Fold Glycine betaine ABC transporter substrate-binding protein.
Amino acid sequence: MKKRTSLSLLAIAAIGALALSGCSSSNSNTGAKGDELTGLTGTIGAKEFAEQYILANLTSQLLNAHGANTDTNTQVAGSSNVRTALESGDFLGYWEYTGTSWITYNKNTVPVKGAEAQFTATKEADAKSGIAWLDPAPLNNTYAFAIRSDKAKELGVSSLSDVAKLPIAEQTFCIDSEFSTRDDGWPGLKKTYGMDVPESNVALLQLGLTYAAAQKGDDCNFGEVFQTDGRIKALDLTVMKDDKSFFPVYQGAFTLQQTTLDEYPGIADVMALLSPKLTTEVMQILNAKADVDGEDPKAIADDWLTEEGLI
């Protein structure tokens, strides 16, 4: 979801290939499940974090199991550069999030309420640019607040409305600086849930440190997290339900050029075997294997697809 626009994509890819050649992969060993995508070639792209690397490898290996010959490129940094690579034809496709496209690429400032409505609006907006969205996965990589599970039970909280009813002394938060000023971040959250929290109850930390801070409970009870992050499960955190649907939906789906889909409509059928299985909980488990256990995203994808009988 970050931006970097100054370098050409080809330059980035070339630099990445030289410096981090181990991160690019060819997926020629997948088990055959069909030949309906014979003739389909290209590169599956990804943004620069573990979830995207896993999704790219899942997609490439699955398509190849149905006759395609694709590889992956996990070396392009920044959402906008990955999107540009798709538009220019450097990438066959990649996984995008509805909130990112709606706000970042289509320049909307107000999210659409509800996952289905947000997906429909985003799909229609991107269709004007020749970008097709396949049916989405259930996963939602949106903002959230999490608390250590034993403390959640002690306080009796499961939603942000519950949090807003706690004594002020228990309403302590760890957030990063960007979130503290975003309209879809801290100011809007307080307004939506009627939280009257003094500044002394809010600790500003680097994004990523908020997970450990919530687990320790020293600086805050509630830490800003991304909902599909593997550290949520690994640190035994409980995510508070956004019961007033304040945060934008960041539902994931495979995107590609409409011309590619027109030529190979079978891509949608093959991807439909995968996408419904990718819930937020499944992605937390797969992401933990990469971010917590240090496993290779390609191996994670291969193992999971095999376990699910998809390759």
The chain has 15 helices and eleven strands. Residues 1-29 have pLDDT under 50 and may be disordered.
